[in-house]
Amino acid sequence: MSEGITKTAARNIFFGGTIFFFVIFVALTVHSHLYIVNVSTDSSTLNDSVARGKHVWEKNSCINCHTIFGEGAYFAPEVGKVWIKFGGADDPEMGKEVLKAWMEAMPTGIEGRRQMPAFNLTDQEHEDLAAFFEWISRVDTQGWPPQPEE
Amino acid sequence: MKYQTQKLAYPYFVAAMGLFVAQVLGGLIAGTIYVFPNFLSEILPFNIIRMIHTNALIVWLLMGFFGATYYLLPEEAETEIYSPKLAWIQFWLFLFAAASAVVGYLFGVHEGREFLEQPLWVKIAIVIVALMFMFNISMTLLKGKRTAISIILITGLWGLTLFFLFAFYNPSNLSLDKMYWWYVIHLWVEGVWELILAAILGFLLIKMTGVDREIIEKWLYVIVGLALFSGLLGTGHHYYWIGTPGYWQWLGSIFSALEVFPFLAMVIFAFYIVRKSTRNHPNKAALLWVLGCTVLSFFGAGVWGFMHTLAPINFYTHGTQITSSHGHLAFYGAYVMINLAIISYAMPHLRGMQPYNQNLNMWSFWITSSGMVFMTFTLTAAGVLQTHLERVLGMNYMDVQEQIALFYWMRLGSGIVVVIGVLLFVYATFAKGKEEQAEIR
Fold this sequence. Notes:
The structure holds 2 protein chains of 2 kinds.
Chain A: H1 7-40, H2 48-59, E1 67-68, E2 71-72, H3 82-85, H4 92-104, H5 123-137
Antiparallel strand pairs in A: 1-2
Chain B: H1 9-35, H2 46-77, H3 84-106, H4 120-143, H5 148-164, H6 174-209, H7 213-234, H8 247-257, H9 260-275, H10 284-307, H11 311-317, H12 321-350, H13 358-392, H14 397-403, H15 405-430
Helix pairs in contact in B: 1-2, 1-15, 2-3, 2-4, 2-12, 3-4, 4-5, 5-6, 6-7, 6-9, 6-12, 7-8, 7-9, 9-10, 10-12, 10-13, 12-13, 13-14, 13-15
């Protein structure tokens, strides 16, 4: 089978082709990097609070239940637009309060319901997490997630 | 077994099996939490148990790759491993780092990017381990014979080491974070790991079928070429909805659709070579795992990947149980099965006995594989329903989860079957065999 090419030719095609596609991939990554920084995300509002909020998200391993931009575990709801769901887009103070109240009510302990642990965040951490959710809710994700009429 | 240092594979395979058991038990607990949400919810929340499930998988697969390399490289290079001592230090450091990470998770010590939750010092230890390993095997290869198999293997392993370095870059901009995170995750499992897989597959086929090395190695270059030509730009199928430019929807769809072909080529290649076999190798169990690996990786990684890789479809399925179904069968078919194949092949040699407990081993093949296939079906059904109810009809996430609860029950059932199959494999591998029989040459 495939007697047409020699092993050396196959090897050269492999290494040459890999370098070719890798160079294209890296070049597109550079372009995408600039696109993210300049177009799809709002770099000007990426302040320390947002950065700390991302760290709160990471420190508590939220991604191993939730998804964020569709990536993560699939055990709990997507959080990419949670800021909008909790009303933060129209009334930021309310968004923060709803988020905090929600988290502090956990775990509900209700039998047969999935349980979110009590993370006992400080007020500062609640503030930062809200800033993070607010910031990511404005990222241009090419229209994802789908928004069917309820 | 011709070379003394091939024995270095043994501790790696033992540790791999131990972590494999931990991984499936973790999965069993996670599957139980899906149907009894209050189970362990205060002591061992879902996010912790999932980290253990996924991290144990990654670590045991790496253990398996390290062991496989130490086993096959001396035979390929026709020389002993450069430094057995370094291989032992590498082993203990890796085991210590992995065990500390898992124990740390139980006490809430972790970072929080998916699959890269290891604390910073563990990540640094992993890099040191990988560099020790790469130094050791590169030196071995330099003093020995270089075959296509060893070159493909070492290219894959160097790629694995280098791309892991992106684990240290965590920008505050979530979209940037995600784009480079995939440099580790995608370029591992849909890139350089496929080279490692192909190399181990090629080695096993040469040993077990006696088919001419020239034919097998030429095929291998074609397969790994297809894997990287499609897989590099195929990374684009993760760049649809994370803040990256729209052109990825075209590039990602086209190139990731082509990712099916290396897996298809592997199936055709393996069955063709086995049919041309000039040797009646006694280790039927290892051959079964080899052939099973190509088939289930074709379905798990290839077909199940294609199912939701096109952007207009992925728009609806992204982040549902569909992803989970694909993830399970792809990891099992490709990387779990190739590890179990080389372990089934090498263990009798490493323990100096005839291929023993072959029937048990083959039973474990059928039990574990049917469990995994059924689990994939249940998650696929759950995912299709979830996609429709949540993403098309707009039902609330938690209400949808209640609608698909039946499938989580069936998933737990298949998980129990998998655990039984895995325990049987471990038993078949380590139990006393026919020691009175001389080592096969």
